[in-house]
């Protein structure tokens, strides 16, 4: 699937993500852990922010100046209703460039929808977007080798791809970053999250 096709699927899913039935606790404990590693709490961005606003709520609670990014127009329309004070960017992370450095970058259950061929470039971009001491938290498939698949999500086609854990760690270390935490947080599902820090 192309990023445009993923955006179309998420346009259809946006009301579900925005509803009271959505699990708003998803990923919050992991983000609270990541924030503990932050040396500064000034700027933050939620990449693939969606419409639920739960991660943005946490960032605001922690006194970050927050931005959101998503490829789905409908997701962002609903996100802006929740947080009219937040700056949102309608863009594809494959081609979008960060306008500044961030102390916290979240890419929770988002960048794995990008084409597999783009993943290394995206991860390098996320690491480069960190301020010194900044923290990146992101999810991936907990596999050893690169792979991709299309699975339905709430009746919509959805693409997922992963570089594999060895490649993720190789890229991170090559960007003057260190992995502070890696966890299979939904085991036996092959879902992992990483907390990465930019070092001097």
UniProtKB/TrEMBL annotation:
Domain of life: Bacteria
Organism: Roseimicrobium gellanilyticum
Chain ranges of the Methyltransferase domain: 45-134
Gene Ontology MF terms: methyltransferase activity
CDD domains documented for this protein: AdoMet_MTases
GO biological process: methylation
One Pfam family here: Methyltransf_25
Lineage of the organism: Bacteria, Pseudomonadati, Verrucomicrobiota, Verrucomicrobiia, Verrucomicrobiales
Keyword Cytoplasm attached: no
Keywords (A to Z) from UniProt: Methyltransferase, Transferase
Protein known as: Methyltransferase family protein
């Amino acid at each position: 699937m192309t990023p445009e096709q993923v955006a179309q699927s998420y346009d259809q899913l946006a009301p579900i993500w925005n509803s009271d039935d959505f699990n708003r606790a998803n990923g919050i404990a992991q983000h609270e852990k990541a924030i503990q590693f932050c040396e500064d709490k000034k700027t933050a961005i939620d990449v693939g922010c969606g419409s639920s606003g739960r991660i943005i709520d946490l960032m605001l609670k922690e006194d970050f100046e927050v931005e959101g990014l998503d490829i789905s127009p409908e997701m962002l329309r609903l996100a802006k209703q929740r947080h009219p004070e937040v700056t949102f960017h309608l863009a594809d992370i494959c081609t979008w460039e960060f306008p500044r450095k961030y102390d916290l970058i979240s890419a929770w259950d988002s960048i794995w929808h990008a084409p597999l061929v783009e993943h290394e470039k995206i991860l390098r971009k996320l690491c480069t977007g960190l301020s010194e001491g900044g923290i990146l938290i992101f999810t991936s498939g907990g596999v050893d080798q690169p792979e991709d698949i299309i699975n339905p999500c709430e009746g919509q086609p959805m693409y997922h791809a992963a570089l594999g854990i060895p490649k993720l760690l190789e890229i991170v270390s090559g960007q003057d970053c260190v992995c502070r935490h890696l966890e299979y947080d939904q085991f036996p599902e092959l879902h992992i999250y990483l907390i990465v820090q930019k070092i001097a």
